[in-house]
Specification:
Largest sheet: 5 strands, parallel
Distance between the termini: 22 Å
Number of strands: 11
Number of helices: 13
Structural class: alpha/beta
Radius of gyration: 21 Å
Length: 339
């Protein structure tokens, strides 16, 4: 537990609110645990993105319950959920909505805007890399601006608004990979791995019998908005800001701070947005775990999902089987030892 000295920069109401958020997060984990076996790290990282007002890109092979997890997360939080299956023939209007000519009771014909599936609180963009770049851009514009523009008119998306996109690491034929500039709009890259043996046994036991249970509503939309505002107020010590900046600068091969071993392995490093997400992610993690101040361990825990998709490896690295995640882990371990 955090000490009273750590909470000195927070008001008493915020201290109570952080304790409440921690309890609500525990309830949320317990509810999802009725259906989702394991994946505790994935659930925590999704929650961090949501309460930090970020978006997440989920990477994993089919059959790992990614869609089920997101839909049940929305259910347990009393949020409106929408799923968009991205395909090569998906058009921007299929996401944003379009004007339909309607006939009124007076016999007049007027255009009426019919909202698309992006008008929800939690949107699952399933296999986003299967749609053409114009359609991806429409989705990413909504993520960035929290609004859509159709036929010259702008429509705001109601908060909270959280996009979870998935990519399939296999079957890449006929896909349209997200450019680096678009990848940078995602706060986290969350890699979903196969379950452990004992978890897979439990999955077989719980999903092949009776119907899955209904989940209780733990948090509503207005509470999510309050907690998102609360996360922004979590204090950050000066040395944490410095650590986040130093870590990010070391990912850039042309930077003087980059270690010698990294320069031939990385073609492009993370930008300033990575620093912002390291701090916001650390704030959200601290609050979810009941801490009244960001600690170094909070930054370390969010470093991998923040930096991995922002560090582009070279051909030399790929030929040696070195991935971006390996580079980030080594950087984190080195800087941790120095801290």
């Amino acid at each position: 537990m955090s000490t009273s000295a750590e909470s000195a920069e927070l008001g008493s109401d915020d201290v109570v609110a952080i304790d409440d958020l921690r309890n609500q997060f525990e309830r949320l984990q317990n509810e999802l645990g009725k259906i989702i076996v394991g994946q505790k790290d994935v659930i925590e990282r999704l929650a961090i993105c949501l309460f930090a007002r970020g978006h997440a890109l989920l990477m994993g092979v089919p059959g790992l319950a990614k869609t089920l997890l997101v839909s049940r997360l929305a259910e347990s939080m009393s949020l409106q959920f929408s799923r968009i299956q991205f395909t090569p023939d998906l058009m921007p209007m299929d996401i944003t909505g379009t004007d339909i000519l309607q006939e009124s009771q007076r016999g007049r014909r007027d255009f009426e805007f019919i909202k698309g599936p992006v008008f929800a609180n939690i949107v699952l963009a399933d296999e986003i890399n299967r749609a053409p770049s114009k359609t991806q851009a429409a989705m990413l514009e909504a993520m960035q601006e929290h609004r859509v523009t159709v036929v010259g008119r702008t429509y705001q998306l109601a908060p909270p608004f959280f996009v979870l996109a998935t990519q399939n690491p296999i079957e890449q034929e006929g896909t349209y990979p997200l450019p680096e500039a678009q990848l940078d709009r995602f706060m986290f890259l969350i890699e979903v791995d196969y379950p452990a043996r004992h978890e897979e046994i439990e999955i077989a036991r719980t999903t092949t019998g009776m119907e899955l249970p209904e989940l209780e509503h733990v948090i509503d939309g207005s509470s999510v908005l309050r907690y998102q505002s609360l996360v922004r107020r979590v204090p950050v010590p000066e040395h944490i800001y410095e650590f986040a900046v130093d870590l990010t600068r070391r990912t850039r091969p042309k930077s003087d701070e980059a270690p010698a071993w990294l320069k031939p392995l990385v073609g492009w490093g993370a930008g300033p947005r990575a620093v912002q997400y390291l701090i916001l992610g650390a704030k959200a993690r601290a609050a979810l775990n009941g801490s009244y101040m960001v600690r170094l361990e909070d930054v370390l825990e969010v470093a991998e999902p923040v930096l991995t998709h922002r560090v582009l490896t070279t051909f030399a690295a790929e030929s040696e089987g070195i991935r971006s995640r390996d580079v980030v882990r080594r950087l984190v371990n080195e800087l941790r030892d120095e801290a």
